[in-house]
């Protein structure tokens, strides 16, 4: 019997890990096969992306290699394109099929776990596709860090006021966790960098702008802490603009709905997510918002042998007093749903009753830079250093594997004893550029780096 797990994120990895433990005897005998299909051979612990961007954590410690933790599973690096659940088949492409130009492969299965996650929700804003920077992957986080330091290099080496102003203007769109934490960590890093390494760049020369379409930021931590976060950011000279939208960023000029215009070389888009496009390429029932209709037992509604959780699933929140409410698409629910999902697949195989997923939301924590943060945990509100400490303790306890916990803790300890490591490795994004030039090729020029 084959269990196909689509996606290697929180739900995909933790579900496969639970199945690997619960079905150990069956896997040894060869009665069961667990296949995990993921675009990347690792799971990214996304709450650590802001600290990775700020240099507090090494990028390799933000990811968990799937082959290391899922030793009894078959890992396939590729992407599932379509699913025909009526026939229990999935079509997928791998690096090998793409290199050969071969058609997509077909893979049969008996049980399906659909957990492809979500993708960035973009809008038809002029110039966004050409100049915007996302913040959902470790590659984007490190690329953004390199980019910010490169902008400081540019500002430090030019006397042109227009180039300098554009290089030192950083616009973040989206006031959720990703946008606020990324801005808070990078602003903190850039201020430290300017004070210690760039004598001709002052912290007050930089413009940090947070654009949010609604009237508040960080809604997960409540209105009081949301207002405190706005006050804290503005105290650090961050221009927080609520009830404001990005109308255009064509020509590297951010034009806002309130009429403001900011020439900038850095525009970070973190304005929400949407369900993965794969869901629309299945024959499974979807909600009006494009998520899978699921039951509280994490089965796909009205469909046998199909399971889902996380961002892709609309799961009833049975712990909520509000009728019809669904669980929020966040890591807190995804990790817990994965455990129940794995157990329920085992229960189903053994003819046992299924468990109901019920979890009362414990709270939220957010970092705003070194020693700064906000947290709401079990009704208690924390600010400043206590919240930042709670943020680190919480995520250290949640990051997978003892190996990763020890490495992250060691890096935090060393960071407290020594100065920050400030260096841009932007050439990593184009490693062959120097060799191509030496071999007689044309000098590489990134079209996004032109003024």
Describe this structure in words.
The protein is an alpha/beta fold. The chain has two domains: 2-39 and 78-118 and 274-349, FAD/NAD(P)-binding domain (3-Layer(bba) Sandwich), CATH 3.50.50; 128-271 and 363-417, 3-Layer(bba) Sandwich (FAD/NAD(P)-binding domain), CATH 3.50.50.100. It has helices at 10-22, 24-29, 49-54, 66-69, 95-100, 128-131, 138-156, 161-167, 177-197, 223-235, 331-349, 384-398, 402-417, 433-438; strands at residues 2-6, 33-38, 42-44, 63-65, 74-77, 79-84, 89-93, 105-108, 111-114, 118-120, 132-133, 169-173, 207-211, 238-241, 246-248, 253-256, 261-263, 266-269, 273-275, 292-293, 306-308, 313-314, 363-367, 373-377, 380-383. The strands form eight sheets. A five-stranded parallel β-sheet has the order 5-2-1-9-21, with helices on one face. Strands 11-18-12-13-14 form a five-stranded parallel β-sheet. β16 and β17 (261-263) form a beta hairpin. The chain starts with a strand and ends in a 13-residue tail after the last helix. The mean pLDDT is 90. This is NADH dehydrogenase. Keywords: FAD, Flavoprotein, NAD, Oxidoreductase. Residues 1-337 form the FAD/NAD(P)-binding domain.
């Amino acid at each position: 019997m084959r269990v196909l797990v689509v996606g290697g994120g929180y739900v995909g990895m933790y579900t496969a890990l639970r199945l690997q433990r619960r079905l150990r005897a069956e896997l040894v005998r060869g009665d069961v096969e667990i296949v995990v299909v993921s675009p990347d051979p690792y799971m990214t612990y996304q709450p650590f992306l802001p600290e990775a961007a700020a240099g507090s954590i090494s990028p390799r410690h933000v990811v968990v290699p799937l082959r290391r933790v899922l030793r009894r599973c078959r890992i396939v690096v590729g992407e599932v394109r379509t699913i025909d659940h009526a026939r229990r088949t999935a079509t997928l492409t791998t690096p090998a099929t793409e290199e050969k130009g071969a058609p997509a492969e077909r893979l049969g299965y008996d049980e399906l776990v659909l957990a492809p996650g979500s993708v960035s929700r973009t809008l038809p804003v002029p110039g966004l596709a050409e100049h915007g920077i996302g913040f959902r992957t470790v590659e984007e986080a490190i690329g953004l860090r390199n980019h910010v330091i490169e902008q400081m290099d540019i500002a430090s080496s030019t006397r042109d006021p227009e180039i300098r102003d554009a290089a030192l203007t950083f616009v973040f769109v989206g006031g959720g966790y990703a946008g606020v934490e990324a801005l808070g960590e990078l602003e903190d890093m850039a201020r430290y960098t300017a004070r210690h390494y760039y004598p001709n760049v002052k912290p007050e020369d930089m413009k940090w702008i947070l654009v949010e379409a609604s009237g508040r930021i960080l809604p997960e931590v409540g209105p009081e802490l949301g207002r405190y976060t706005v006050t804290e950011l503005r105290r650090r000279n961050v221009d927080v603009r609520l009830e404001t939208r990005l109308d255009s960023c064509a020509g590297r000029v951010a034009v806002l709905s309130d009429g403001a215009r900011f020439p900038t070389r850095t525009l970070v888009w973190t304005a929400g997510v949407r369900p993965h496009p794969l869901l629309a390429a299945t024959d499974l029932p979807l909600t009006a918002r494009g998520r899978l209709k699921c039951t509280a037992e994490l089965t796909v509604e009205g469909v046998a042998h199909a399971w889902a959780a996380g961002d892709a699933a609309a799961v009833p929140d049975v712990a909520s007093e509000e009728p019809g409410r669904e669980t929020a698409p966040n890591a807190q629910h995804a990790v817990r749903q994965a455990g129940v999902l794995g157990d329920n697949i085992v229960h189903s195989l053994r003819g046992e009753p299924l468990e109901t997923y019920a979890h009362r939301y414990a709270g939220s924590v957010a970092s705003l830079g070194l020693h700064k943060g906000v947290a709401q945990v079990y009704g208690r509100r924390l600010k400043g250093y206590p919240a930042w400490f709670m943020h680190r303790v919480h995520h250290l306890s949640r990051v997978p594997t003892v190996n990763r916990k020890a490495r992250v803790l060691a890096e935090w300890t060393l960071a407290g004893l020594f100065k920050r490591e400030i260096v841009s490795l932007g050439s990593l994004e184009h490693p062959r550029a120097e060799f191509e030039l030496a071999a007689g090729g044309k000098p590489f020029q990134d079209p996004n780096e032109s003024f």
